[in-house]
Protein 1
Amino acid sequence: MDLARLIPAAEAIPSPWGWLEALLLLTFILHVLFMNLTVGSAAIALYGRITGRQRDLARELGHRLPTTLALQINFGVAPLLFVQVLYGQFLYTSSVLMAGWWLSAIAAVILGYYCLYVSDAKFESAPGLSRLALGLSLGMLLYTGFLLSNNMTLMLRLEAWGAYAQNPTGSFLNVSDPTLWARYAHMLLAAPAVAGLYAALIGVKKRRLDWVEHGLKWFTRLTMAQFLVGAWLLMALPRPVMLAFMGRDRLASSLLAAGVLAGLAALLMGLKKQPGAAAWLLVFSVALMAATRAQVRLLTLAPHFTPATLPVTPDNTPLLAFVLALAFGLAAIAYMLRVYTKSAGRG
């Protein structure tokens, strides 16, 4: 079968695709950083609540979770919209195939968000309910992440789209794709690793050396495991894409190598108990890995589609409006976080 015949017709875009791809990458980096903070902090806090270790750190992280989840959701809207603009014919198709599951993510996020407030409010007065709410929230976040991984891998797997003929009910999941499980595991390990470094930075600020030590253990141990999972993910990619990252494509190979080196440098700083330096290197590594992820998408679709071929109907007004709104929004969020940090410090 000619898989290209399954691809719906593309819509025209208002600006050159490179600008849209760059904004997709920028907003995705912001989203994934807050996603890691939220999911990872919830995991570390729940571990502390269950084991009784670092209970005060668990309370501190739990108190911050509604804020980080709100930022995660807001920063997640923009990259999803940019994916729809550039790769809409793929994303809409995969979303239809798993429509029932995909729509359930809305309810899962709302329930998870509400449970975070319950967990924080009932920390002292009803610890059992608080732990249950935190566990339920973490479960909802992991469920949503699983659905996102399904959709983002299914949109690249044209050979699986024929499943609609046997399953038109919107209940298809991409569980037979080996990249799904490697990709999801990569996310599962990354979240508490990033949140561990976040906990260490909080410990530095509050002069809690035990928090620093505890957070760095999460960061260093899971980052070591990440290199193994990363190798698994690389091997799970379709062979032409995998080979592109192993030297056949200069840009793809360079991004992957730079991301790995940045991750190793961050790990070294963590082992040396320098969380500040590790944090900057971690952000750099996440940015490079996000760019690598974008290359996976481009290379996987390359035999059938490239966004460079999209027709352009020039109208830069929407792009300019978005850039201005993004700049204003980032400034406003930075100000609110500064005020929030000061008030939390006084509390």
Protein 2
Amino acid sequence: MKKKVLIIEDDLSVRENISEILIEEGYEVLQAVNGKKGYQEAVRNIPDIIICDILMPEMNGYEVIHFLKKNPLTRDIPFLFLTAKTDLSDIRKGMGTGADDYITKPFSIKDLLNAIKIRLEKYESNKKKLKELTLSLEMSLPHELRTPLVGIIGFSRLIADNPELYSYEEIKEFAEGIYRSGKRLHRLIENFLYIARLEIISANPSELNKQKMERVSKAGTILNQAAVEKAKYAERVEDLEVSISDFEAKISLEGFMKVLDEIIDNAFKFSSPGDKVRIKTGEEDEFIVISVSNEGSQMTEEQITAIMPHMQFERKFHEQQGPGLGLSIAMKIVELYDGKIIITSGDNKITFDIKLFKP
């Protein structure tokens, strides 16, 4: 099926020129003579990509994208500004509204086609990722939600039906079961929402650029505190070994805390009391490196390369909390800030090397 391109441009010669080029390349072309008609055409026919001039009568390009981004039907459509203005402030304003790219007049045919091709490919890639995420949610939610809900309903039903039959200690045990199930359900829902949010950020250039400006300071202190808290929660303080220096990194505080929460939690979850969990920091070229390793378990190469939102490695051997989203979330967050997580496994040990850019 032909990709549909909407051209919003008040200059007839420019509009016709672009239209002829795109038709020759096999695109279906829609045209609009001003911003108002362009917005109406976009809502009516939902193009695959929009090329829009900035200075136009009735509604300028900034207003067009403003209304398109507010409309659920059109907010995700790739949007390219077409402008004769080369002032950086105009370009910055355009990109800040959520535009994916800009083309400066006069333009070459090669530059025009290349810009369209790149944005369409990225759009299709994002749609594929969201489709996979949706499928993962559909596959995982019924079972994963049912498990903690059964615990909550079961324990509370016992107390509600015949409270006089149970001792104080038994009721306390039931309450603790309800609390654990509630915490599990809360974490599960938060993780599903978090990974969906990450996909949305990744597909939004302006939001992505804003996120990449974030920095975290005193990261070593935060890391040490997170490690100690996780060890206490797992009742394994004696298994924790740390060698941590303070540092700064290119990542948001929220993202950094989430990565630590998932990776360190994973280290304790997939090891047993007595197995060491070691955390250390170092530097490698332009990266800060946080190494988190645990004894007592391994991952195959297939498991390492197959970390996806719906994946849970060795589920039949380990009790999982949630559908295995934790590692996917941590990797996605680090990638968002152009870092990486390298997983190595062998000799009855798993190591996660979290590499974040120095400021």
Protein 3
Amino acid sequence: MNQKNSLGLDKCFGELDDPIKLFEKWFNEAKKTELNDPNAVALGTADKQGVPSVRMVLLKGFSDKGFVFYTNLNSKKSLDINANPNASMCFHWKSLLRQIRIVGNINSVSDKEADEYYNSRAYGSRIGAWASKQSSILNNRDELYNSIISYKKKFPETNNVPRPNYWSGWNVSPNEIEFWLDGECQDHQRLKYIKKKNNNWKKVLLSP
């Protein structure tokens, strides 16, 4: 018989009052079992008319402050965020039969954080940040390749490629985090953390 925690959930949920610590526990397990990109997450945004968009991004950091990803600040997602600074995230790890959903507000990371991450990237990725006008229409693929060649000429030193001012990171500061575990015959287990005004978290069980 599977061991249960005090809420009657599988022991993988633990007894943690802090959802960030539970996220870290599940994320570390996913890194062992997912073949590709355990940090891949579906990011949902909406524009000022409320029209939603969702796409996969890569999580590049997390802490008590939130969940961080990086992108072009002129991209569709960034335009959405500027118009409507609310977002949702969904991690789905098939190897573990687990899912985590996050809802929160978005704010930009500091220049220092953005510079540190940008400078940790491969040379080609840093050049790509300059060369790609993300989400804009390409007349043809050569337009992108020529832009890459041009910026490689401009920045030939692999250790000296500055971060473009239109490339940075966003931080999703969570208000709600839900942990989901697959079960037989729709008997899924769901634990939701809701942030209270004092920044502590309330735990509730949800019906599958």
